[in-house]
Design brief:
The complex is a heterodimer of chains A (514) and B (358). By secondary structure, chain A is mainly α. Chain A is built from 19 helices and no strands. Helices cover 67% and strands 2% of the residues of chain B. The chains are: A mainly alpha (514), B mainly alpha (358).
């Protein structure tokens, strides 16, 4: 194993060296960085040419200059990486250090949401193969495959952001929209829960009616201006979460697991006011992380305390419940911030931004405003990337799960009398995750590559923007730094995907047989 | 309860065997090619897509005038991409500038194409002509990338999968190497030294970088197939490597190749439009769908049609290619069994009855 990894890493370094050398020279002959200055009439043009030539070492031929550049990178082993200076004199290391978190924020968020949504829908389509829902989702995912991201982005800006902002100025949902949304929800749920005609119609009526009533209440309460969950709704949602997680994780007939999750939710509801106090008084990321740790520890302890047998599964169930409930409390806190956030001058009641990565006029000392602002700026780019990438997850999950469901060990599991939930969640779903994990790693890299377009549409200054800037202004150091980081990430991701696969699937052993 | 279950299972077993009979009847006495073709024809989405794509190609390529050697061929549309109509901007009902005159309402007086079906751009050029030219570019890029990427990927993948060992290691590391180099850079190097070489060239170098995924897939397939008995049989019978590759393995891998090439092609359309959108693909005097969208995205609120029509063409071309790929995948998949519909079962019963009553 160790030999395999070290050999692969050695090959990766050779590849990186070769491609960066070739790229450096190609980029050097792709244009003249002094061209604009040579033709300019400015009196100090000559002086500028001399300075630039000195700082960028333009008098050294590119193949040799490459090794100067490489020396700076290799300095990383001595603890100091030097990517050189950009044209305007800023150290590239600094520019990159600012850009990486921006791109990562964009990519991570959309990848997480795309995974959760895509895998869920993929599982449902596989379990309901050849149903109406399956056909509809197949069509939708092909449609999403065919959409250019920049085109979707413009549509989202217009129809989601601007329309929603305008809607917020008088937040009553019109009657036609209520009918539309409740019909859509009815169609959605009745397509998933298929069965006899009577059952489909019942599901349709219940889902549509529930949606309509909910929307009407939200509209009457002007909920979209003063959103929030409150302790009562949180308690109801918490019980729902506890039941749902228990059902998926162990089955509702496991009373101990259900009791443990319900107890966790109970503790959560009781600590609602203290938690809010802490979040108001000590508003920073450390508090949130600390609260997350406390929540998880408490949930683990609750599971451990109640369980006599099967401790692992019960602790898992209570922890997942506790984690989701914690997220709900956090969401509630953000919703409480909404109204004062909307009222600030910087927002002026138009909260969904169409461009940029943050609002500079927001008071940087107010932690919750800054967090909410960051999230609001993430919404549109995340949605755009999400729409494009989650179709792939749907198709892939569906295909893999169908294949797994046809395999012998699933038949064995059924034959020994396991119930359908255990067969699907424990035997089929886990094995579906194995090939999926490698796809997720590879896809993550794909989105980073695609970030150049997303960033340019939404005006974010991330790695993609720096790359584009370096390419347009023939700024070698900038260009090469972005290339170096993305390329190393790409080859590393490939290696990780291979290793992950072999770690998860005992049938595959890397480096064996050589 | 138990009784019911048994009864249900018995019924299912009965149904399964009759389904197997129906499914078997479909492949009886047919060659592999006929089976695949038959399955493809039956895939409704794929057939609709084939018709859509063919009619789109015909409409798009016959729209504008073009020169075929010494002959000038007249297109069906009156304007070209450089024509600025003498009348200037046509009159519009709501006071916009250059509105589309296309009307699909058969009862209105304006029904039909009108003067400028897709409207006019900023300087009054006919937008239909521009969109048609852009779509021509996209389709051209799609086919060139598919051809070059498909050929290269197949050759490299099959050589490395068939010969394994050192050849495989070198070729696969070369593939890794190509993956790391962004094709935009090559484009800008070429653009700087030789000027704008036009769309076919853009498509060519995109194709030169697009084969990596395909070659990995083909390699995997070759690694699997070369261990099977029929390859051993061919080798024992004295077939050369060349013959084994072309006559025995390649025909068995053709399914996976065709499917990935279609996906490659639909990806190429999106790649070309995206590159043009950020300014590294097709550039200004020429027209591309991505370029049109990038030029007019700011006028979306006032003149949305400048944005809708190019997007509509991108989506419909990419969508139909994707569906064709899906149909091909189903058709080539040996595990794929058609869903036996109620009608088939009825027909089977009818045939059986006919046999019984002489």
């Amino acid at each position: 194993m160790f030999a395999f990894i070290s050999r692969r890493i050695g090959v990766l370094l050779v590849i990186l060296f070769g491609s960066s050398f070739i790229l450096y020279n190609l980029a050097a002959i792709s244009g003249d960085p002094l061209e604009a200055l040579r033709t300019s009439n400015e009196p100090n043009a000559k002086q500028q040419i001399i300075t630039l030539t000195r700082t960028l070492q333009l008098n050294v031929p590119p193949p040799v200059r490459y090794f100067y550049w490489l020396r700076g990178i290799l300095g990383g082993f001595a603890g100091h990486v030097d990517f050189g200076n950009a044209r305007d004199g800023h150290p590239v290391t600094e520019l990159i250090a600012n850009a990486i978190p921006v791109t990562l924020r964009l990519v991570t968020m959309s990848t997480i949401v795309a995974c959760i949504l895509g895998i869920t829908i993929g599982i449902v389509t596989a379990l309901r193969q050849y149903s109406r829902f399956d056909y509809a989702m197949t069509f939708v995912s092909f449609l999403l495959f065919s959409l250019p991201v920049f085109w979707v982005a413009v549509l989202l800006k217009q129809y989601l952001a601007i329309r929603f902002n305008t809607f917020l100025s008088s937040p009553t949902i019109p009657f036609t929209s209520i009918i539309f949304f409740s019909t859509a929800s009815g169609v959605f749920w009745s397509a998933i829960i298929s069965g006899t005609r009577k059952r489909v119609l019942t599901v349709f009526a219940v889902a549509a009616g529930f949606t309509a009533i909910l929307l009407e209440i939200l509209s009457l309460l002007k909920w979209f201006i003063h959103p929030g969950l409150g302790i009562v709704v949180l308690a109801i949602l918490g019980v729902g979460v506890a039941c749902g997680v228990t059902q998926l994780s162990t089955g509702l007939e496991n009373k101990v697991a259900l009791r443990a999750s319900l107890l966790v939710v109970g503790i959560g509801v009781l600590s609602y006011y203290p938690a809010n106090y802490f979040m108001r008084q000590y508003a920073n990321t450390a508090t949130i992380l600390l609260m997350a740790v406390v929540t998880i520890a408490l949930s683990l302890f609750t599971g451990r305390f109640l369980a006599k047998i099967d401790r692992g599964t019960i602790m898992r169930t209570s922890t997942i419940t506790g984690f989701i409930f914690g997220l709900l409390v956090l969401l509630d806190k953000l919703m409480q911030t909404w109204a004062p956030y909307m009222a600030t001058d910087a927002i002026n009641n138009r909260p969904v931004p169409t461009i940029g990565q943050s609002n500079s006029q927001i008071d940087p000392t107010n932690y919750w405003f800054v967090t909410l602002d960051t999230l609001m700026h993430l919404i549109l780019p995340t949605l755009a990337l999400l729409l494009i990438s989650f179709a792939g997850y749907i198709r892939f999950t569906r295909g893999t799960l169908l294949e797994v469901l046809n395999s012998d060990y699933i038949r064995t599991a059924r034959a020994k009398g396991l119930n359908e939930r255990t067969v699907i969640m424990r035997h089929a779903f886990r094995n579906t995750l194995i090939p999926l994990s490698t796809i997720i790693v590879a896809d993550f890299m794909g989105i980073i590559g695609g970030a150049i377009i997303t960033e340019s549409v939404f005006g974010w200054v991330g790695m993609g923007t720096l790359f584009r800037q370096g390419l347009l202004s023939f700024d070698l150091n900038l260009l090469m730094a972005v290339f170096f980081i993305t390329a190393s990430l790409a080859v590393l991701a490939n290696l990780i995907a291979d290793l992950l696969y072999s770690a998860l699937d005992p049938r595959i052993r890397v480096g064996a047989g050589k | 309860m138990i009784f019911n279950r048994n009864k249900r299972e018995a019924l299912e077993a009965q149904r399964d065997s009759s389904e197997g009979a129906i499914a078997n009847k479909e492949v009886e006495g047919k060659s592999q090619r006929q089976i695949v073709f038959g399955r493809f024809i039956r895939h409704r989405g794929a057939m609709i897509s084939v018709l859509t794509l063919i009619s789109l190609i015909i409409i798009v390529y016959s729209a504008l005038d073009f020169n075929l050697g010494p002959w000038k061929i007249k297109g069906w549309w009156k304007y070209g991409i450089a024509d600025i109509p003498e009348g200037g901007f046509a009159a519009c009902p709501h006071g916009e500038i250059g509105c589309p005159t296309l009307s699909l309402n058969p009862f209105s007086k304006a029904f039909g194409l009108g003067e400028h079906p897709f409207g006019q751009d900023d300087i009054g050029r006919d937008y239909l002509a521009l969109v048609m030219r852009g779509a021509q570019r996209s389709i051209l890029v799609m086919f060139i990338v598919g051809a070059i990427g498909g050929t290269l990927g197949t050759i490299i993948g099959s050589i490395s999968g068939f010969y394994r060992g050192k050849v495989d290691a070198i070729l696969m590391r070369f593939t890794d190497f190509i993956i790391t180099i962004p094709s935009i850079i090559i484009g800008s190097v070429v653009g700087y030294h030789y000027g704008n070489l036009g769309v076919p060239f853009l498509a060519m170098y995109l194709g030169l970088f697009a084969w990596t995924g395909l070659s990995r897939l083909v390699r995997g397939e070759f690694l699997k197939l070369r261990e099977l008995e029929f390859v051993d049989a061919a080798r024992v019978a004295g077939a050369s490597n060349r013959r084994i590759i072309f006559k025995h393995i390649l025909p068995n891998a053709v399914g996976i190749i065709i499917v990935s090439v279609t996906l490659l092609m639909s990806g190429a359309i999106l790649l070309e439009t995206a590159l043009s959108y950020i300014g590294f693909g097709v550039v200004a005097p020429d027209v591309s769908l991505g370029l049109l969208i990038s030029q007019y995205q700011d006028s979306f609120t006032s003149r949305p049609w400048l944005f809708w029509y190019p997007g509509f063409f991108i989506v419909s071309i990419a969508l139909s290619v994707n569906f064709i790929g899906d149909g091909l995948r189903d058709a080539f998949d040996p595990r794929q069994r058609r869903r036996i519909s109620r009608k088939d079962r009825q027909r089977d019963v009818d045939v059986a009855k006919e046999r019984e009553t002489p």
